[in-house]
Structure formats: structure tokens, C-alpha cells
Amino acid sequence: MPSGATTTVRNGLAAHMFGGAALSQPTTWWIELLYGTITDVGSHGTASSWGRKQCTQWNITNNVAANTNAITWTADLVTTPRTITGYAIYSASSSGTEYYWGSLTTPVDVTAGNVVEIAAGAISVTLT
After folding, report:
1. Which residue range forms the structural domain that includes residue 110?
2. In whole angstroms, what is the distance from residue 70 CA to residue 5 CA?
3. At CA 97, angle to CA 57 and CA 9, rounded to 5?
4. What is the Cα–Cα distance from 22 to 13, expressed in whole angstroms?
5. In the predicted model, is pLDDT for residue 38 greater than 80?
6. At 50, phi and psi to the nearest 5?
7. Which of 58, 41, 46 is nearest to 2 (CA)?
8. Which residue has the higher pLDDT, 39 or 101?
9. pTM
10. Closest CA to 84 of 102, 104, 63
11. What are the residues whose beta carbons fall under 8 Å from the beta carbon of 21, sequence distance 6 or more?
12. To which H or E segment does residue 9 belong?
């Protein structure tokens, strides 16, 4: 299951730790579902017509951040059938900076009009 911090995060951490500009923490985090082959930032399709959903809380334990609450796309937002293969974490509800991306263990086929939900704790971000 590929996943990773984007170049923005990797460069930002290096600069933050070794005398460059300090990283600034986004005030909110937004999750977008992805489809197609996911290999790195920007090289994937997005289910953007469904919109990004805000992730308001993270639980951080032993170098792992996990979403505390479920994240739901209601049936009225899921307008296009897709096979969801991953997710990306952004700093804004539109545009913004992509900070992290991850692939699902098993892709999920979604029919238009379905509810899509990411369970609490299902997104796990580990920096190693």
C-alpha cells in the first residue's frame, strides 16, 4: 500500500530542522478521495466533483496521526461512479497544498448516489 509525504512536506521538514524556514501548521485539514494509479503528488485522478471533506481532529500516538472522527460524503455529493483507490490530505477545501497521499489496501467501487465514509482511525499517517 504505497503512501507518502509530498515533496512540500519533505523539503519543509528538512528546512525546519536544519535552519531554514519553520513550517507553519495549516489551521484545517481536508481529505479528497482519489482514483486511478497513485504514485505521488499530482499523479492521480481526484473525485473532486464530490468535494473535499474536513478532518477536524487527529489522534497522535507513537509517531502516527489518525483521523479521530468518521469522514462522510453524502449521497447527494457522490454524483459520478468511481473506483476509489486512495486519498490525499490538503490544507484547504479547494486548491491548497497537498501534504500527504495514500492508497487503499483494496480499491472500492462506488456507484453514483452512494454514501462514502472513511471510518474513524482508518487514515493513518506515519512519518519515518
Report:
1. 3-126
2. 22
3. 80
4. 8
5. no
6. -80, -20
7. 41
8. 101
9. 0.86
10. 104
11. 12, 15
12. helix 7-17
Cell triple for residue 110?
A: 462506488
Grid coordinates 473535499 are at which residue? 52
The domain total for the chain is: 1
- E strands of the chain, at which residues? 3-5, 29-35, 45-46, 53-55, 58-61, 64-67, 71-73, 82-90, 98-110, 116-118, 124-126
- Determine the longest span between alpha carbons in the chain, in angstroms: 50
| Cell numbers given for 95 | 486548491
What single-letter amino acid sits at 52? R
Contact call for residues 34 and 88 (beta carbons, < 8 A):
yes
Place of cell 452512494: 114
Please state, rounded to an integer, the average pLDDT across all residues of the chain. 86
